[in-house]
Amino acid sequence: MMKNPHPARRRVYMLLGFFGAFLLLFFAVLYDAQVVHGSENRAKSITSNTASETVTASRGIITDRNGKVLVSNRLAYTLVFDKSSFGKDGGALNDAIWRLIQLCQELDVPWNDTLPLTTGVIPQLKTAARSNAFQEYLKDNELPENASASELIGALRELYAIDERYTTAQARLIAGVRYELDGRISYTFAEDVSSELISRITDGHYEGVTIKTAAARVYNTKLAAHILGTVGAIWQEEWRSDEKTGYVGYADRGYSMNDLVGKDGVEKAFEDYLHGVDGRRLITTDENGKLTGELYTRKPQPGGTVALTIDIDLQQVAEDTLASTIQGMVDKDSNERGGAVAVVQVGTGEVLALASYPTYDLETFNQNYEELAADERLPMFNRATQGIYAPGSTFKLCTSVAALEEGIITPTTIIQDKGIYTYYKDPQPMCWIWRQARTTHGRINVSQAIVDSCNYFYYEVGRLTGIKKLDEYATAFGLGQHTGIEIGDESGVLASPEWADAHDREWTDGQTITAAIGQSYNLFTPLQLANYVATLVSGGEHYEAHLLKNVKSYDNSRIIDVYDKGTLNEMHISESTMAAVTKGMHDLTHDSLQGAFSRCVVEAGAKTGSAQVGTDIANGTFVAYAPYDDPEIAIAIVVEKGGSGSLLANAAVDIINAWFTRGGSSASLGENTLLQ
Fold it and tell me: Quick one: pLDDT at residue 670?
């Protein structure tokens, strides 16, 4: 039998066992700390020089339909103002703000200030002072809700302890920054700041200021400013939600206070796609502030790549021909004008080009904002989607379809133009040819009436059809309604007794016959007119006008979204109606418009319009489509004070030729074109 070991020896064995186990545990912990979690623990070990920070994700890029990059990113610096170091010392905070403002004024650097009070010696209230968001701000801070500008300045002085050392104008500027900081610790004071400003900031005299890296937008084109839009810091009124309007603020959408967001155009419309997911990292620095290490706890995910329906080469032609057409008119009479072009793909609703004149340069938008805002020509106003104009004789196409489809007339119905329409005692309007030459168009059918743009014919047809049916068809064409375009648009006005009654306007029998020729209260956007023609020549397939083609991940590895909505409605226009209407449009290009369309590379159809906006002033309107026998594109052009729509025919031909003579495929987008 085995003897039991001596008690003393047994104790030694036990101690050796415990010591061995301890060593194993020690080395296991050491391995985990230095190998498995080594980088993280090394970052944490220097506690005095370790910080956790947000890494802003790059914003997604924007391309045209062929993959040409329109908007990308570059490395830039933003200036963030943080009030946390000031505690409750409002006076010190105000002084720091004023020093920073003075520096920005000296270097001509714009900063973010959305307080709805003008700056200057005598501040005035802006329209936004009546917004729900600002009224909530006043209520939250127990400020007078209906105060005058001077009263509000006084109240803000008291609220933010802005002492009398500061003038009214200075107090207004300080209050603007305090307003942006309300409910926030920090905010982006200025974006894309210069190296000169950075060097001045780092001299130690500007407390509360931090310089952060960011991705600034790069505009690879000077075109499509009204489409692409701008980005900027989150404004105070954008940060908080508004229960009254249902607006969900960026604070409740997972955004950081210092994020840049889309302000208008595509940048705003597709914000959810373009805005990436921020990352987090631990950084370590030495006693001199030099970066010694970093560890990503969550890597940033760049925003998606948004491909638009726009063809940037066609956009170039649309903007150039619109500008040259208008400038030619201005050179003759020195009257400033604006105008717009819209080009829509038939059968899809894709917007191929959208031009507004005058325009501006997105690259210099921030620097030139005050000048642009003061320009009486309204260069920032998107006339293609926001401008509403009487369609003039371009509406006669709708009147023709309504009358033909309802059996009021047939393609062979003849109406005698008598010069003066005398059915009503009052009014008794004249056909344009009678007014100009005291002659008539004689006996004509609907196709010839389109060619001649005979008002008398359409007075009679409009009366017989009635305003109810005219409006029914106009609505089916999308006139007087939002087009659905993602950047937003005006709905316009579709003339009707109901609209007149709702707006305290008079409606008479004479309104019906003038509505039939595109006058009365009718007001439509150029985009509506283009989409209306696209719907017509497709046989009645009405699509939403849209800019989104698809969205891909930043590295193009997967498709996030594709526009795939079907028709909004289908009218099923008969072949006989289509033939009669399109014949008139085609014949017009070989009649009075032959001079322009003789150089068109394909057969096309068109209709002119002229809408009176004063005694001697008329806007010019023009619609066209091509090819005549297999429609692909529809065009609408409007020029303010443009006179006869026939003067716009050459511009339409330029656009048609550009589309049907375009070259091969454009360079496609490669991977990793974003700042990571």
Answer: 39
Same domain? 297 vs 337: no
**Residue 127 and residue 172 share a domain:** yes
Distance CA 175, CA 180 (A): 9
- Helix count (H) and strand count (E) of the chain? 24, 21
Residue-number span of the structural domain to which 217 is assigned:
51-308
Asked if 190 and 79 touch (Cβ cutoff 8 Å), the reply is yes
Q: What is the pTM of this model?
A: 0.81
Q: CA 615, CA 509: separation in Å to the nearest integer?
A: 22
Q: Are 509 and 573 in contact (CB under 8 A)?
A: no
Fill in the amino acid letter for 342: A
291 in the same domain as 361:
no
Model confidence over 355-392: pLDDT tens digits?
A: 999 999 999 998 888 899 999 999 999 999 999 999 99
DSSP symbols for 325-371: HHHHHHHHH-----EEEEEEETTT-BEEEEEEES---GGGTTTTHHH
Cis peptide before 526 (omega within 30 of 0): no
Asked if residue 181 belongs to a domain, the reply is yes
Kindly list the distances between the CA atom of residue 503 and the CA atoms of 439, 466, 497, 499, 614, in Å, as whole numbers in the listed order. Answer: 38, 21, 10, 6, 21
Cβ atoms of 125 and 149 within 8 Å: the answer is yes
Domain boundary residue, one of 308, 325, 342: 308
Q: Of the candidates 67, 62, 63, 64, which has an alpha carbon nearest to the alpha carbon of residue 267? A: 62
